[in-house]
Amino acid sequence: MGYLLGNWTLSSKLYARSGSPFSVIDGSLSGLVTSAIGVAPFVPPANILASPLPGINTHCGTSAVNTPCFTAANFVPSGDENGFGAARNTFYGPGYFDIDTALYRNFPIGERMKFSIGAQAFNLLNHPNFANPAGNIAGSPGTITSTVSAPTSPYGSFQGSAVSGRVLVLSGRFSF
After folding, report:
1. Closest C-alpha among 13, 28, 88 to residue 52
2. Tens-level pLDDT at each residue, the chain (176 residues)
3. Are strands 25-26 and 167-175 parallel, antiparallel or unpaired?
4. What is the dihedral of CA 158, 129, 71, 58, to 10 degrees?
5. Residue 40 and residue 95: Cα distance in Å, rounded?
6. Spatial contact of 123 and 28, defined as CB atoms under 8 Å apart
7. Within 10 Å of residue 154's Cβ, how many Cβ atoms?
8. CA–CA distance from 106 to each of 10, 11, 52, 90, 149 (Å)?
9. 109-142: b or e for each residue (b if 16 or more CB lie within 10 Å)?
10. Is residue 85 within 8 Å of 49, Cβ to Cβ?
11. How many CB atoms lie within 10 A of CB 69?
12. What pTM value is reported for the model?
């Protein structure tokens, strides 16, 4: 009975986080900034933070894939701002959840050798994780248009290893 039930290895990684912060900008405002200060040449910022109207929802969940969580109508119209807009990183995108699991069975061969066979499952639940929604009210804001990949995959954690679907890796190993 010990031969059948023993020598198993189970491991797992869990990634979970609440929504990541992002800023909503008004890209059409960058051309309206002038160098009226009279000092050294003023370089306008590429984008300026948008000014939300009261009562806007600052948490965008996964429902923003089909329906925008905010529109340009939820912000003060371009050119009518009287302040600096919302604070940086006021809005939050959807959360992130991922489980990676491995299961191996070790077969002892003599005293010093063993053979292991098993599988690793990356993104075990095959759950999509969505990126933050578009945050420029000069375009089409509030809609999620892409997914994000896991921090690691069987191909490593470097550029080009991005895999957002489930990946199953079967392996065998002989140790001596």
Report:
1. 88
2. 777 788 899 999 999 998 899 988 887 766 555 545 455 554 445 557 888 888 888 888 888 788 888 888 888 887 676 666 677 888 999 999 999 999 999 998 988 999 999 999 988 888 888 889 988 888 888 888 888 887 777 777 665 566 777 889 999 999 98
3. unpaired
4. -100
5. 43
6. no
7. 13
8. 11, 14, 59, 51, 31
9. eeeeeeeeebebbbbbeeeebbbbbbbbbeeebb
10. yes
11. 23
12. 0.71
Can you read off the two tokens belonging to residue 44? 């306008």
Which token pair is 32? Answer: 């309206």
Which amino acid belongs to residue 167?
A: V
Q: What are phi and psi of 9, to 5 degrees?
A: -125, 125
